[in-house]
Structure formats: C-alpha cells, structure tokens
C-alpha cells in the first residue's frame, strides 16, 4: 500500500504542474459563490433564465452565440411551446426555394441563435474596430471562467483611474488584460425588468448572465455531475470488494 | 506433419482452434501461469494500467473520429457538436482528453518505477528501449491529438513545435514543409495530423505487444532487484496478480473519474476553447503539462538548434541508460547513495515542469537552466561514476527469504 500511496502522491504532484500552467496568468478576481460549483452543485435554473433575459435584451445586440441551438434552453426549464414561441421570434435565412432564392423564415427550436452581424468585419465596423467575441464558450475560454465574466462585467470604472490614458473609444476595466477594452460599461441598474420580480442591480444582472453563460458553455453540466457521483460510488464499492478478495487470496500464501 | 497438435482444453471448440493455432496455450502460459515475483508492490500495476488506458484511448478515439471533421473550417465546430449534440459525446470527449493525461501519469510512474528498481538493467535492456520508443510515439500521438480541436493552443502549439525542426541545418526547412504540407500550419497540416493521430495508437499497440513479449522472456523485476530462484519466490499471475492489478486499476479509475466528471477542463488550457486564429498570438503559448519538463529544457538553451538537440537528447539518453548505469545492483533499496540522487532527479523533473509553465525569463529561466544542467549531469556523470564508487548494501539470498524473514538474513556483498 505504501507504493500505492507514493504513486498517488506523485500523480498529485504531476497534476500540480497543470495548475502551474495557469498560475502564471492569474489576475485578482471577484470570486462568487456559485450554486453550480462543487461536486453536488447544479445550475440555478431561475438565475440562468434571468441571465438569458439579460443576454437577449442586452448582450445579443453585439455578441453572437452561434454554437448554441435554441432548444438547448430546455436544460434550464423552457417548455416545448415556450421554445417554439421563442424561436419563432427570430428570423433565420433559409433556402434556396424553387425559384432559387434565399428567403427568411421564423426560427425553429433546432436553429442556432442568429448572430447580430453577418461577419467579423461588420462586427468590428460597428464597435470601433473591436470584435465582440462569440459567447457560446466564453465561460470556458477565459482563465477564471464565470468568476472572470462576473468581475469583467462589474469591473468597469468611469472615469478611468488617474494617470490612465484611455485611447479613443476605449473603456477602463479592472480585470481585462491591459485594462483598455472596446466594450462599453453595458450593465445598468434596472437595465432589464425581471419577470420574476428580482431586483435588477448590476451585480444581480452580472451574476445571472454569468450563470447563463456557464450553462451554454457546458449544457450537460448537471447530467455530468450526477453521473459522476454514481460512477464514483460504484467504483468505490468495487474497489472495496476487490481489495477484500485480494487480501483473502494473498493471505493463503506463506 | 499434416497432423494437428494435441491440446488440453475442455471446451471442444477451444481445443479445435488451439490445436491448429495455439493462441489459447499461449495465453494460458503467458497470463495464467506466468510466474510473478511474489514481492512486487503496487508500482508494478502501472504497466497494466497503461495498457488499459491505451485501450480506453483507442475505443473513445474511434467513436470521436466518427463525428469529427478534419477541415480547418469545420474542426472546432464539429468538436462542439460532439460536446452538445452527440449522445454522450461530452463523455466520450472528456474521457479521451483527460485519458491522455491519465495515460501519461501512468507511464511516468511506470518509468520512474523502472528507474528506482533498476528494471532497465541486463537482461531487460530491450524491454526498456521498447519502453522509451513507446514513450516517444506516445508524445507524438498526444501532440497531434491536441491539434485536432483547432483551438488557439492547438494552432499555436503546432506552429511552435513544428518550427523547431527548422533549426536543423539543410534538412530543417524541407522537414517543416513536409510536416505542414505547405508553407504554414494550415488545412493540409490538420489533415495529415488527423491521419497520423488515428494511425499511431495502433503502432503503439504493436509496440506494447513487443514490450510485453520482451517482458515475458526475462520475467518481471521486483523491489529487491534479485532474480527469483524457484517457485517459492513467485506466484502464478492469475489469480494473484490479476486481482491485485485489478484493484489498482479500479483505484486509478476513481481518480480518472474525478477528473472526467468534476473538473474535466482542469488539465486543459482555456485558450483552446477559442477557435484557431493565425492573426492573434496568445499571450503565453504553453504545451500540455506532460511536455512541460522537455519544453523547459528546450527554452533553457539560448541557441535554437542547441535547445532542440538538448530536448531530443534528454529522451534519447534514456535509450542508452542501461549502459550509463555501471552498478550491478538493480534496486535502489540496496544503493543508499544513488537512492538520494534518484529523489533529487524526481524533484528536478517537477521543477523543470514548473519552469516550463512559466515565462522563459528572469529567475525561472535560471532555474530551468540549473534544472537542465542537473538532468544531464545525473545521467551522464553521476550514474556512471556512482556505480563504481558506491558500496551497495548486502543483497538477500532470495526473495522468499527476504519476504518471510524481513530481509534480515543476507550475505555480505562485495563492492560491485
Ligand atoms: C503504452 C505505454 C506502456 C505500456 C502499455 C506498458 C506496459 C507494460 C506492462 C503491462 C508491463 C508489465 C507490468 C509492469 O511491470 O508494470 C511493463 C513492464 C515494463 N515496462 Fe512498460 N509499458 C509502457 C511504457 C513503458 C515505458 C515508456 C517504459 C520506459 C521507458 C517502460 C518500461 C518497462 C520496463 C523496464 C518494464 C519491466 C519492469 C519490471 O519488471 O520491473 N514501459 N510495461
């Protein structure tokens, strides 16, 4: 068993290296208590639904979410008819028809969220040259994940701290690398009116939209953890049985 | 002789096959009765664990390949489709991605086990060399696999690593062009990497079969590093070692599952969730963690060609390890001085790994340089010299004696 311990210890050390790879890039983030973190944590569906409202009413003016089919929202509690109605609110291009022409039709739940701009150049042109990144995976594409997004959205400072020379069209942000960002401070108190009556402070909106973006980046998060608990319990029982029978067998040796 | 061989199996079908193609006799011989030293510890399970990981990788990889598109305009999105839309696609991908890391963990432990107990010494040189070749092919496979999702780290990692070959005079540039299939990392590169990434695991499988064949010629080493003298020193592989290895595999899988289900992206880099963009260079280009010590060696040498040679040299060195170590005593248990240096080497590896993750400047660069120097010093100077100077502890007469009486009885050993 000592050898096994050594092995586990060395594995743990090796894994420390993986962490080291990220440590070099750390910034100070405003860490939140997320209901979806930890072994048993699941996505807070009400928060994610509010977050979707923020995305739809605020962020989607500039940011696409091109990898996410609308039906994905079933995972945060949207019913079939709600999904159909929601999808129908979007126009998507289809075709060509019999006359060989492309046409617009109402969206279906299987369609992906349409993008606000036809291409990156158009997006840049509308944003002072800065490209608003696609948000489908943003929660997994930044060191710090949802904590980074929350800190980014609540980290704008206007006016910028003394001594900082902002370039034209740029805004000051505490956590964005280099601190000068092309995105405006977009979240405002009561910038959205939540259907469930939650008070829409900037922090609340940021937290909700970060929860939503975590969900769209990892739509199977809840399913994954639930399966994990079962798999590990099974393996623990199996390991116990294996160890007991191994002990019994080896004890017959002299 | 047009007559089938006589076989001994009860099942007539098995018998019929076996008398024409004796695979069952072979399996029975190699995996049922194969004598294992009775004193092997759990570190001897990591070969079996590595073998199972190879099977896991091939199985998950096959199903991923059915859904993956190796065109630069589709690769990233096809991986996301697997994650979102394919039934249990997220499970397949996370098992495969974390499996690569777990495979390396198993193999690194397996190799350090060999270093500690002197398993590379005569008569196991070819077994060891096959191991080193396996390690090299594994690194190639993992590197190309990481390119496939075509994220930022895929693209820039591929660019940095393939560019290394350009350091070689004359042949350098043609090699790079050949790797790229053009003049930059692009669609032809991705296509050939996919083809090779599909092929190499089967090459590995073949190498592993050779590795095991070589193992079964001389038998397993053991913590005492002395050969078994007879049946009292061994146990039949089945059921003794099958059960013991089986338990170790399950424990290993618990750790594996913890990663897959609860922190599947811990060992990856967030930048690889950003689609590849040749126009935007990431702030730090870091390889996967299992390459970090070698990456540190590469960057420790101020000259590009020198760095590449040092990096490849650090692995090539292992090929001649059996002849660098001049001590006749295998196990570190009986080498009080070498044992200390073994642990220093292990720490050196970790330090190099850490330095590989840091920007190559200031004190980290200095640390990487010291670590690199020490790595080569260990193998090229310490090992050959120590074998001549060190006075080993007395070896026990036999495994069973040491096991049953706590190793107290031992005959004095002359300076080896
Ligand atoms: C695909 C990767 C590999 C697989 C599947 C594999 C498999 C195995 C297996 C099943 C054994 C017998 C069980 C054991 O003693 O642990 C073994 C033994 C051994 N392997 Fe490997 N191996 C791999 C890589 C390597 C590497 C990279 C090295 C060294 C560079 C290596 C060196 C050895 C040695 C020296 C032994 C004999 C150990 C002893 O008896 O003390 N192997 N391997």
Automatic annotation (TrEMBL), chain A:
Chief subcellular location: membrane
Cofactor(s) this protein requires: heme c
Signal peptide: 1-23
UniProt keyword list: Electron transport, Heme, Iron, Membrane, Metal-binding, Respiratory chain, Signal, Transmembrane, Transmembrane helix, Transport
Binding site for heme c: 59, 62-63, 183
PROSITE patterns attached to this UniProt entry: CYTC (PS51007)
GO cellular component: membrane
Any GO molecular function: heme binding
UniProt name for this protein: Cytochrome c1
TrEMBL record, chain B:
Annotated binding of a ubiquinone, by residue: 216
Transmembrane residue ranges: 42-66, 94-115, 127-148, 154-181, 193-214, 246-267, 304-324, 336-357, 363-386
GO function term, MF aspect, one: metal ion binding
Source superkingdom: Bacteria
Keywords: Electron transport, Heme, Iron, Membrane, Metal-binding, Respiratory chain, Transmembrane, Transmembrane helix, Transport
Major location category of this protein: membrane
Signal peptide from the UniProt entry: none
Compartments, as annotated in UniProt: Membrane
The Cytochrome b/b6 N-terminal region profile domain, residue ranges: 13-224
Function: Component of the ubiquinol-cytochrome c reductase complex (complex III or cytochrome b-c1 complex), which is a respiratory chain that generates an electrochemical potential coupled to ATP synthesis.
Protein known as: Cytochrome b
Organism: Azospirillum cavernae
Taxonomic lineage from the root: Bacteria, Pseudomonadati, Pseudomonadota, Alphaproteobacteria, Rhodospirillales
């Amino acid at each position: 068993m000592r050898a096994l311990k050594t092995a586990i210890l060395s594995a743990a050390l090796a894994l420390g290296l993986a962490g080291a790879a990220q440590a070099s890039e750390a910034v100070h983030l405003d860490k939140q208590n997320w209901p979806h973190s930890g072994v048993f944590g699941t996505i807070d569906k009400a928060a994610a639904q509010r977050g979707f409202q923020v995305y739809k009413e605020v962020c989607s003016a500039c940011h696409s979410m091109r990898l996410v089919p609308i039906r994905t929202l079933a995972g945060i509690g949207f019913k079939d008819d709600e999904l159909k109605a929601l999808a129908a609110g979007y126009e998507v291009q289809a075709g060509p028809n019999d006359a060989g022409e492309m046409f617009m039709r109402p969206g279906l739940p299987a369609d992906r969220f349409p993008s606000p701009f036809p291409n990156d150049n158009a997006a840049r042109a509308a944003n002072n040259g800065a490209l608003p990144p696609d948000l489908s995976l943003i929660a997994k594409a930044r060191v710090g994940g949802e904590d980074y997004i929350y800190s980014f959205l609540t980290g704008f400072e206007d006016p910028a701290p003394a001594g900082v020379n902002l370039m034209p069209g740029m805004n000051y942000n505490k956590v964005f690398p280099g601190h000068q960002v092309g995105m405006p401070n977009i979240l405002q108190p009561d910038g959205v009116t939540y259907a469930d009556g939650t008070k829409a402070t900037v922090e609340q909106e940021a937290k909700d939209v970060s929860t939503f973006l975590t969900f769209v980046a990892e739509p199977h998060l809840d399913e994954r953890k639930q399966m994990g608990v079962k798999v590990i319990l099974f393996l623990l029982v199996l390991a116990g049985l294996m160890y007991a029978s191994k002990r019994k067998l080896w004890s017959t040796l002299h | 002789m047009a007559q089938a061989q006589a076989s001994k199996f009860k099942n007539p079908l098995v018998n019929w096959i076996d008398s024409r193609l004796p695979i069952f006799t072979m399996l029975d011989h190699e995996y049922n009765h194969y004598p294992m030293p009775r004193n092997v510890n759990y570190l001897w399970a990591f070969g079996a664990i590595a073998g199972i990981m190879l099977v896991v990788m091939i199985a998950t990889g096959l199903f991923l390949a059915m859904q993956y598109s190796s065109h630069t305009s589709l690769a990233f999105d096809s991986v996301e489709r697997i994650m979102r839309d394919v039934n249990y696609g997220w499970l397949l991908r996370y098992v495969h991605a974390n499996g690569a890391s777990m495979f390396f963990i198993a193999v690194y432990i397996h190799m350090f086990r060999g270093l500690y107990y002197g398993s590379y010494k005569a008569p196991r040189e070819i077994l060891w060399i096959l191991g080193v070749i396996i390690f090299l092919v594994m690194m190639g496979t993992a590197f190309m696999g990481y390119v496939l999702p075509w994220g930022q780290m895929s693209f820039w990692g591929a660019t940095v690593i393939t560019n290394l070959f350009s350091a070689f005079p004359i042949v350098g540039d043609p090699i790079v062009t050949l790797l790229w299939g053009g003049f930059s990392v692009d669609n032809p590169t991705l296509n050939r990497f996919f083809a090779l990434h599909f092929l190499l695991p089967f090459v590995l499988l073949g190498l592993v079969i050779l590795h095991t064949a070589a193992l079964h010629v001389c038998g397993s080493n053991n913590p005492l590093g002395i050969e078994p003298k007879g049946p009292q020193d061994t146990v039949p592989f089945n059921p003794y070692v099958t059960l013991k290895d089986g338990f170790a595999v399950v424990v290993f899988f618990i750790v594996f599952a913890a990663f897959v289900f609860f922190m599947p992206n811990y060992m990856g880099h967030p930048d690889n969730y950003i689609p590849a963009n040749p126009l935007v260079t990431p702030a730090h280009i870091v390889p996967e963690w299992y390459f970090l010590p070698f990456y540190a060696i590469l960057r420790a040498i101020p000259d590009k060609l020198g760095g590449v040679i040092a990096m490849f040299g650090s692995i090539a060195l292992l090929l001649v390890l059996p002849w660098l170590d001049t001590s006749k005593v295998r196990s570190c248990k009986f080498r009080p001085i070498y044992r200390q240096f073994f642990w220093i080497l292990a720490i050196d590896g970790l330090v190099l790994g850490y330095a590989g993750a840091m920007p190559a400047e200031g004190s980290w660069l200095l640390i990487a340089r010291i670590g690199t120097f020490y790595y080569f010093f260990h193998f090229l100077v310490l090992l050959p010299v120590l074998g001549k100077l060190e006075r080993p502890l007395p070896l026990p007469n036999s495994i069973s004696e040491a096991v049953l009486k706590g190793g107290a009885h031992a005959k004095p050993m002359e300076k080896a």
